[in-house]
Amino acid sequence: MSHNQKLNALLKSVRGAKANSNTQDDAARIVTQLRALGGPIRYEDSGKLGSGLFLLGIGAYGHILGSERGYPIGPDGTSGSSVLIYNVAIALAACFILFWFFRRRKAQKFVQEVYENAALASYGLNDEPIPKLKDWDRNFHEFNRGNHSREIMYCRSAAGRGESGREAYSLFRFHWVVCEERQVTETDHNGHSTSKTETTYYHYDRYGVLVEGNFSGIQISSDAPNSKYKLQYRPASVAFNRLYKLRCVEEMQTAKFLKPSIVIALEAAVTQLKNPNLEFGLNGQMCLTWESDPFNVRTVMRSKDRAEELAEIIEDGAKMPILDVALELVALIQRHTQSNFSALNNDNTWESIQGVK
After folding, report:
1. Strand ranges (DSSP E) for the chain?
2. Sheet harboring 277-280: ordered strands across?
3. DSSP, residue by residue, 209-237
4. Residue 354 and residue 357: Cα distance in Å, rounded?
5. Hey, is 252 helix, strand or coil?
6. Are 219 and 229 in contact (CB under 8 A)?
7. Which of 120, 168, 220 minimizes the C-alpha distance to 334?
8. What is the mean pLDDT of residues 288-310?
9. Packing angle between helix 3-18 and helix 81-122, nearest 10 degrees?
């Protein structure tokens, strides 16, 4: 069996298993299959790419030569059939190159898919019904973004180990679109000017975790929309005030929350999470958000397609460094404000929050 046939069989097997389950046993089976592949997670299509580039060169050369001599061209200088030959060469080149490109993308998406499925199983994350955005928007300023569309793309929960069995945290992806319109004036070759409206859509994502807490009405942001909270609060730390803007409902409650240990942790979080925001909503829940995708396999995989490296990552628990940093920050906040959090039911805060099996 050729390498490409082995890779196709692996893709079919893994995607078939995904439709039925997503467990640690599946991860162990995938590790075995990856090591049995005997090569990179990449189709051996270099011959097709080379053929495509060769034909593209022929077609391009023919058209360049024709533009210099004047069409039609050919071996005798008059035959227009050569133009058709050059166009066919370019068309075949496009087919070969697109085939190589799509198969390359297919393999890359497979690497991402395998890692993400293993991470979901390792962290005990399960899909939950996507909440109504208007409910979150009512309690958090974080979701007051965009002027075109807003959407929670997924919401996944990990159950804690406390006796109550309640959810330790929910992980979500928030997507929004900014629409910008501008008037553009174009002038034709006769000097006539016409105006038209050009519309551009900009897509953005943020990721976050949601946990239960007893504070409310505190927004600490390094990158967030304008807050509706009237009061500004500035702790003694110059570094903190340079990194974050803080608005709140009650200064006394904010001062009680913002202990020196939490100030230091939030200062450090900026170097580990991209543009973090921390907010206690009006419903008492705590929401920590950032920009980088925690499920991106490139955060842990140095090569692009080495099967052995991906197998080792899965064996090691398919860690998500970005999510780990976020959960450690949440755990620290809960530990230093323990009396203010109703969700804290045992002494092992990190295990309760992370929910990793």
Report:
1. 125-127, 149-159, 167-187, 193-212, 218-221, 231-232, 245-248, 277-280, 285-290
2. 125-127, 149-159, 167-187, 193-212, 285-290, 277-280, 218-221, 245-248, 231-232
3. EEEE-S--SEEEESS-PPP---EE---S-
4. 9
5. helix
6. yes
7. 168
8. 92
9. 50
Q: Residue 67's pLDDT is what?
A: 60
Q: Chain centroid to CA 16: how far?
A: 24
Would you state the torsion angle of the CA atoms of residues 347, 266, 278, 250, taken in this order, to the nearest 10 degrees?
90
- The percentage of the chain sitting over the pLDDT mark of 90, rounded to a whole number, equals 29
Q: Is the dihedral of CA 120, 122, 126, 130 positive or negative?
A: negative
The token pair at 254 is 């904010």
pTM: 0.80
Tokens at 171, concatenated:
């992980």
Predicted pLDDT at 332? 87
pLDDT, average across residues 156-178: 76
Kindly give, in sequence order, each residue whose CB lies less than 8 Å from that of residue 113, ignoring residues fewer than 6 positions away: 14, 15, 18
Dist CA 288 CA 266 (whole Å): 11
C-alpha 134/C-alpha 143 separation (Å) is 9
C-alpha distance from residue 47 to each of 50, 99, 252, 304, 353 (Å): 5, 11, 69, 20, 51
- Tokens for 26, please give them: 């599946």
Comparison of pLDDT for 275 and 335, the residue scoring more:
275
Closest to 170 (Cα-Cα) out of 217, 115, 127? 127
219 in Cβ contact with 247 (< 8 Å):
yes
Q: Are 344 and 338 in contact (CB under 8 A)?
A: yes
Cα atoms in the Cβ-side hemisphere of radius 13 Å centred on 94: 8
pLDDT digits 0-9 by tens, 61-101: 777 766 655 555 544 554 556 777 888 888 999 999 999 89
Give the chain's end-to-end CA distance (angstroms, integer): 37
Q: What is the mean pLDDT of residues 293-319?
A: 91
